[in-house]
From TrEMBL:
Pfam families: DmmA-like_N, Fer2
Stretches assigned to the FAD-binding FR-type domain: 1-108
UniProt xrefs under PROSITE patterns: 2FE2S_FER_1, 2FE2S_FER_2, FAD_FR
Cofactor(s) required for function per UniProt: FMN
Gene3D superfamilies: 3.10.20.30, Nucleotide-binding domain of ferredoxin-NADP reductase (FNR) module, Translation factors
Superkingdom of origin: Bacteria
InterPro entries for this protein: 2Fe-2S_ferredoxin-like_sf, 2Fe-2S_ferredoxin-type, 2Fe2S_fd_BS, Beta-grasp_dom_sf, DmmA-like_N, FAD-bd_FR_type, FNR_nucleotide-bd, MRET
Coiled-coil ranges from the UniProt annotation: none
The protein, known as: PDR/VanB family oxidoreductase
UniProt keyword annotations, A-Z: 2Fe-2S, Flavoprotein, FMN, Iron, Iron-sulfur, Metal-binding, Oxidoreductase
Residues covered by the 2Fe-2S ferredoxin-type domain: 236-321
Xref: CDD domains: fer2, PDR_like
Length: 321
C-alpha cells in the first residue's frame, strides 16, 4: 500500500461524538482510487496505526476513481488515549501520514439483492456502499440504527442517496427501534446482507440469518473493535498437536502473537475475529469464543476457533496445528 501524506482541509462535528475529517494530498494531486468498503490506516503519534473507513456521499463514478479528497468519520471513544482522541484534535492545515486504501469489505455480488445494515459509526463503509450501488443503478434496502436520532451521522446525504430505501431506527423511539429478526426475515431469497457496527449487532444479524436459513456466505460484515479489548483475559496454555509444544498465552497477548513469535507457521488476516482465515481446529479444551464468524451452534460444538481473538475457558487448549 502506498504511503500518503495528507493535509486536513476541514474537521467538523457531525454528532456530539462523531467528527467528519476531510483530507487532501499534501502535494495537491489526485489520491489513489478506491471502492466502497475501503479504509486507510492512519499513523498515530505513538507509532501505532488505526484503520478508518473512507466515506463517500457522492454517487458518481468519478468520486472514488479520481478522488481529490478523502472523508473520514471518526467516533470519539470513551477514555480514548489513542486513535480517536488524536483524530478529534486535528484541525485544518495539520498533516498526517496514512497507508492505503485497502479493502476487505467490498460489495462483490453483481445480480443479488442487497440489504445494508449499519449501527453507530459502522455507517461509514455502509454509506459508501449505498453511494456505489446508487451510481450503478442497483436497488438495495438500507437500515441505519442508533441509540438516539441525534447520534445518527450523515442523515441528510443518506436520505438524498437512498430515498425510500432508507429506514432509520432509534432505540429510544419505540415506533422505529430496530427488530433485526424482522429485517432479516424481510430480505428476499438469495439476498446478501452487509453489516457494520457493534459486535452485538453483528452477532444478532448473523444468528437471525442462520435461523432464517440464509447461507453463511451471504452475510458480510466488518467489526469496529479494538484488538486489545478483544484479547483481554486470563492466561492459559496452548498445545500444538503436531509437535507437543506448549505455550503460555498471557492476558495481554493473542494466540497468534505468541505462536508466531515462537516460529509457528500461521495463516491469518484481520486479527479482529471477522474474516475467518485463522480458523483452527480444537482437539481438546474449551475455547472462549470472541469472534463474529461462528454461529451459536458452531460455538457450542467447540471444535474450531478463531485464534486471533478467541481465548480459553479451560486451562489448556490442544490445537490442530
Amino acid at each position: 500500500m502506498p504511503e500518503l501524506r495528507l493535509v486536513v482541509t476541514s474537521s467538523e462535528a457531525a454528532t456530539p461524538q462523531i467528527r467528519t475529517i476531510e483530507l487532501a494530498s499534501e502535494d495537491g494531486g489526485a489520491l489513489p482510487p478506491y471502492r466502497a468498503g475501503a479504509h486507510i490506516k492512519v499513523q498515530l503519534p505513538d507509532g501505532g496505526e488505526r484503520p478508518y473507513s473512507l466515506v463517500n456521499t457522492d454517487p458518481s463514478h468519478n468520486a472514488t476513481q479520481n478522488p481529490r479528497s478523502y472523508r473520514l468519520g471518526v467516533r470519539l471513544e470513551e477514555d480514548s488515549a489513542g486513535g480517536s482522541s488524536f483524530m478529534h484534535t486535528l484541525k485544518a492545515g495539520d498533516v498526517i501520514t496514512a497507508a492505503g486504501p485497502e479493502n476487505q469489505f467490498a460489495v462483490k455480488q453483481q445480480d443479488a439483492s442487497i440489504v445494508l445494515i449499519a449501527g453507530g459509526i459502522g455507517i461509514t463503509p455502509i454509506l459508501s456502499m449505498a453511494s456505489e450501488l446508487t451510481a450503478a443503478g442497483r436497488p438495495f434496502d438500507f437500515h441505519y440504527c442508533g441509540r438516539t436520532r441525534s447520534a445518527l451521522a450523515f442523515v441528510e446525504p443518506l436520505q438524498a442517496i437512498c430515498g425510500d430505501a432508507l429506514t432509520l431506527h432509534c432505540d429510544d423511539e419505540p415506533d422505529t427501534a430496530v427488530d433485526l429478526g424482522a429485517v432479516v426475515s424481510a430480505a428476499s431469497s438469495g439476498a446478501h446482507l452487509y453489516v457494520c457496527g457493534p459486535r452485538g449487532m453483528i452477532e444478532a444479524v448473523r444468528e437471525r440469518a442462520h435461523e432464517a436459513g440464509i447461507d453463511k456466505d451471504h452475510v458480510h460484515f466488518e467489526l469496529f473493535s479494538k484488538h486489545d479489548e478483544q484479547v483481554a483475559g486470563g492466561s492459559f496454555e496452548v498445545e500444538i498437536s503436531s509437535t507437543g509444544e506448549v505455550f503460555t498465552i498471557p492476558p495481554d497477548r493473542s494466540i497468534i502473537e505468541v505462536l508466531e513469535e515462537a516460529g509457528v507457521d500461521l495463516i491469518y488476516d484481520c486479527q479482529r475475529g471477522d474474516c475467518g482465515i485463522c480458523q483452527t481446529g480444537v482437539i481438546d479444551g474449551v475455547p472462549d469464543h470472541r469472534d463474529v464468524i461462528l454461529t451459536d451452534d458452531e460455538r457450542a460444538a467447540n471444535d474450531v476457533m478463531q485464534i486471533c481473538v478467541s481465548r480459553a475457558k479451560s486451562d489448556r487448549l490442544v490445537l490442530d496445528l
